[in-house]
Amino acid sequence: MTDSTLPSASSAVQPLSTFQDMQLPSMLNAAITRLGYTVPTEIQLLSLPPARKGQDVLGTAATGSGKTVAFLLPLIEKLLSSRATPRRTRALVLAPTRELAAQIEEVALELCKSTPLRVTSIFGGVGQSPQAAALRAGTEIVIATPGRLLDHIGQGNAQFGGLEVLVLDEADRMLDLGFLPDIRRILKVLPSQRQTLLFSATMPDDILKLARDFQHNPVRVGVKHGGKPASRITELAYAVSSEMKVDLVAGLLAAPDVDQALVFTRTKHRANRVAEKLEKAGISAQRIHGNRSQTARTEALEGFKSGKYRVLVATDIAARGIDVPALGHVINFDVPVSAEDYVHRAGRTARAGLSGTAITLFSRDEEDGLRSIERFTGKPIERATLAGFDYSAKPSEGLEIPLRDRLAAHRAQRNGGQGGGQRGGGQGGSQGHARPASAQQGQGRSGQGSAGQRQQSSGQARPADNARFSTVAPAPGEGRSGGNRGGGPRRGGSGGGRR
């Protein structure tokens, strides 16, 4: 399926003035005024007219361009403007990560503050009981990650007979994470007569196929294919050995114009180690990834937003939903596995019309990946060096702790300081641990079956944020947020591994 088979809205932005000129319901207009929204962004100008008419919309725009408001405004307007049986779920928003779901919920609560509409978020990492109670009591707007929502559907907590609007946000990421089967299962319990709004930062062919399968004559708005960072983002790349990357990050953070930075790593273990090393260097840092409890992730994110931490180290999947409007710098500690991930990472800065800088550190074996990104975005990334930095120096210790040592530490912690179990991934006491980052790109999905049996899927599988079980060991002192430590899969229970 190509763009030519989809209806398109005009790409020219009409000079529609302000939100107040849209004649929104009074309660929604009051919320817009209170939040200080004035002139709509480009994606809002393009998507709001067809969405407000009840048409399906396939919207594409860069991260940070206002997609959340673009789908929440017509959704809330529709619910306020039509009569329906109260205390029923009338709108469902699906998002790939907990953080993104929480971010959408925050905006929805603000927009619904003066309305009778109720909003509930459903995601893993927290207990299911409050979520089940909210669903059973009735809530008009549900914002959920697919895995945890399927848990509630299976338990009979969620009923969608009165659903009017479905939204798929970050659709490209949900497909990347292998959510398509889950989405299809959810769609089976939804009414076929509904409005479907699908938004994405990039538009690969798989998304266009998704639109054909899930939407009815969608109006296509935004850019047509691929994507590139916003023009307000300065892109720089620093050539440096893997062993010296942490030192270079510390050097970059010493610059007077760098206040805070969001640092992306390839794996959870690397996120832990980078944060630890920056702390040792006197730089306040925290990390956010799928093996941390939801409480720890929330504290890290809030601490970063408030300025308590100068650096937040994150994996790609956990970083979805990090929205810091004035964030000036994003640092790719590792070159992203895909060019689309680069666009998403860079889009964490230069939000809300501000400028920002996206920095990528690349070692010799990452040069091909960097060139692939340049081909995708259609422009070269300026090469830079940090004045006074000794690129030839050798660090006192490596970044990653060998897998054998990590497994031994986890066994000792679990067994009260005594070792035991067989060596090797997936045997005995090391159940659930993954291969080290040097042995895999991305995150592997654990296999299902008896304890100790784990299969690594080829390629980049669904990370632990959205998988039933984590395949990467938590950092010392951090347990998983619930889940089944036995062998077979288990649905239900608080904090079960599905996110």
Question: Could you characterize what this model shows?
Answer:
The chain has 499 residues and is of the alpha/beta class. It folds into two domains: 3-222, P-loop containing nucleotide triphosphate hydrolases (Rossmann fold); 233-384, P-loop containing nucleotide triphosphate hydrolases (Rossmann fold, 3-Layer(aba) Sandwich), CATH 3.40.50.300. The protein has 16 helices and 14 strands. The protein has helices spanning 26-35, 42-52, 67-81, 98-111, 128-137, 146-154, 171-176, 180-187, 205-214, 245-253, 268-280, 294-306, 316-319, 339-346, 367-377, 403-414; strands at residues 57-60, 91-94, 119-122, 141-144, 165-168, 195-200, 219-222, 233-239, 261-264, 285-288, 311-314, 329-332, 356-362, 382-384. A seven-stranded parallel β-sheet has the order 3-4-2-5-6-1-7, sandwiched between helices. A seven-stranded parallel β-sheet has the order 10-11-9-12-13-8-14, with helices on both faces. Helix 14 packs across helix 15. The radius of gyration is 23 Å and the shape is globular. The two termini are 31 Å apart.
